[in-house]
Design a protein that fits this description.
This protein is mainly alpha-helical. The protein is built from 10 helices and no strands. It has helices at residues 2-13, 18-29, 38-47, 52-76, 78-89, 92-100, 104-117, 122-131, 136-171, 173-193.
């Protein structure tokens, strides 16, 4: 099953519609969607390593624009849009706790860590930034640095080592998928206790 899914993802990642799909996921992931753009970005870079830097540019621009949307939601439409989303994901109390402990330095640190590692989730940080009226210029600059740095570093590594990575994954797909499931489970458990 994982082999078919892996092959399907790589095949689809090489299609002419993949950049639009990845850009769309990157945009909405920064404000409302729970799945990161990496699910398309990484296979796209593995499938077409010569286009990795172009994909990094698309992912960076759309992610920053999606982050601006999240900031605007937090600043102007928190009760209308963000609160129902938080209730849907069961994160209202965690968000309120975070809000009461947050200052500009904390927001800046969270923007950088979220942009680099998705912890805390980008959509939470973008909406929180707007809610506490974090300076939009600093918000955009930090999002460009963190998200751009992450996507360009990944693109470089995948372009340079993509063939070896692909071979490793294809030879050890079951072990790789088991490791991904374990890491995802640990991240999920960690998010429950944070």
């Amino acid at each position: 099953m994982f082999r078919r899914l892996y092959n399907w993802t790589l095949h689809w990642a090489g299609s002419r519609y993949a950049p639009v799909a990845m850009g769309t996921v990157s945009f909405v992931e920064s404000s409302v969607f729970p799945i990161p753009a990496d699910v398309l970005f990484i296979p796209m870079c593995l499938s077409r390593p010569e286009k990795a830097m172009r994909y990094a540019l698309i992912a960076t621009v759309t992610s920053v624009l999606g982050g601006i949307l999240g900031w605007l939601i937090g600043h102007y439409a928190f009760d209308l849009i963000a609160r129902p989303l938080l209730e849907f994901y069961g994160k209202t109390q965690a968000f309120e706790d975070l809000r009461t402990r947050t200052g500009d330095v904390t927001i800046l640190i969270m923007l950088i860590t979220s942009g680099l590692s998705h912890l805390p989730p980008m959509k939470v940080v973008t909406i929180l930034s707007g809610l506490v009226s974090f300076d939009l210029k600093w918000f955009i600059l930090s999002a460009i640095v963190a998200r751009g740095g992450r996507f360009y570093l990944l693109a470089y590594l995948l372009r340079r080592y993509g063939i070896q990575v692909t071979r490793f994954i294809e030879q050890r797909l079951a072990q790789v998928m088991a490791a991904v499931v374990v890491v995802a489970g640990l991240v999920w458990l960690g998010s429950k206790f944070v």
